[in-house]
Amino acid sequence: MQRTQFGTMACSIARTLDVIGEPWSPLILRDVYVGMTRFEQIQQDLGISRKVLAERLKRLVGNGVLERREYSDRPPRHEYVLTAKGTELCDLLLVMVRWGDRWTAGEAGPPVLYRHHACGEISHVEPHCSVCGEPMHATDLDLVPGPGQAV
Length: 151
Known about the structure:
The chain is of the alpha+beta class.
């Protein structure tokens, strides 16, 4: 069955889903973000099949989210590192973490806490307006056509 091509839609959400819209890709990004950069580490952590992991890594590299770097030439071995594009995508994952901690963690609470480098406090990501700095939520917005709007 052919996969729907979300990347051609005039929608930033659809285009983002085209890059990371299946369940393994965000988890692979999470692993690379926390320092698991080698194929075997990621495969062992996720319990994902080698074939699926190889396909997802190839797609993430092809989309410029990860970079494949050689760390040994005898035998040839590679690791995966976040690009600037991939690091920014991790910001999206942090918003997902906040939602998951709030709505799915249950009584046990969040499995991981995040300490902010600037203040040293345990915190969470909260969207703010890039212009005025006020908190920004879906109920605070009006949608207006942008320059990439499909005609």
